[in-house]
Design brief:
Distance between the termini: 39 Å
Mean pLDDT: 89
Number of strands: 13
CATH topology of the largest domain: Rossmann fold
Number of domains: 2
Low-confidence stretches: 1-6, 10-17
Bound molecules: guanosine-5'-triphosphate, magnesium ion
CATH superfamily of the largest domain: P-loop containing nucleotide triphosphate hydrolases
Shape: globular
Largest sheet: 9 strands, mixed
Structural class: alpha/beta
Number of helices: 13
Order of helices and strands: HHHHHEHEEHEHHEHEHHEEEHEEEE
CATH architecture of the largest domain: 3-Layer(aba) Sandwich
CATH class of the largest domain: Alpha Beta
Radius of gyration: 20 Å
Length: 329
Amino acid sequence: MASKESKIAAEPSIEDDTPDLSSMTGIGPTTLKKLQESGYGSLEALATATILELSEIPGIGEKVAERLISQARKQFKMGLKTGKELKAEFSKRQHITTMAKSLDHLLGGGVETGCITEFAGAFRSGKTQLMHQLAVTVQLPPEKGGLGKGVAWIDTEGTFRPSRIEEMAVPLGLDPDECLDNILVGRAYNSDHQLELTEEALNAAKDRKIGLIIIDSLMAHFRAEFVGRGTLAFRQQMIGKYLHAILRVIEVKNMACVITNQVQAKPDQLFGDPNTPIGGNVVAHTSTHRILLRKGKGNQRVAAVLDSPNLPEGDATYQILTEGIRDIK
Ligand code: GTP
Ligand code: MG
């Protein structure tokens, strides 16, 4: 990832609700260093870690891991919260426009920050096109439906196209060059590489103005590499860990994350769309909103809510034009 060269401005105004791990009491300098080097640089990262993953760090046994996590949870106030406190937390969430009012409406105002939105669909259902659109609109100022921030894009299929970004930027009054400069792209060649690049992207988000993480597509490498029954449990565990690492960062930073996913036909489905996203329960339970995309007539596409804690069932039809995703006139 060409993060060193990018001009995405260092984040000047991230709310100070992610205390550094060095502010934690009852932790020695050696342990602190070990944790920081293993990617647990904040109190929040430690508070949301599991004993199992922490005890994998050399020199930190299960007992120590348990004590550290419990201490971090106390200090990070991970206990119960009132409904009112949660309402205040939810009210900070923002939405990124898709440039189609119908689709924004379906999504409750656009792609929501603080959670993972999954777009699943067959090939040519327009997943990658929608990712290009969001990579541009997130850069718009909030009054125009963006976050005024950049993007980290994990590309597992080599389908990111700078020229498509330029094409979509111009009609929105954005400078195409600047727009490209605000997108960090990591081309992942296998699942290991995907994990590594995502970690790099999450780290970049700590001190850069990044508002959106795109993973296009989530399962391609995992699906190709982990074949056979014996590897399934391990694969699911890996994906679960992967998505949770993303969730932790985006919740705290109030960033959005969109993932794309392939579908497979459900042989026993008689009504509705017979396609179901791949990846099993782990992906199903970690994605907050699951949206199914399908091809309509010509350049039209249809999005439908498959699963969401707050979005009502429904669908939206829009089109893919040269200038990007738009409503049907
Ligand atoms: P897979 O990654 O193969 O699963 O497909 P996908 O769901 O990501 O589909 P993608 O977003 O690549 O959609 C491809 C479709 O978008 C094409 O069939 C075209 O209809 C449309 N499309 C792609 N590029 C352009 C473009 O530059 N201009 C316009 N107008 N349409 C495009
Ligand atoms: Mg694609």
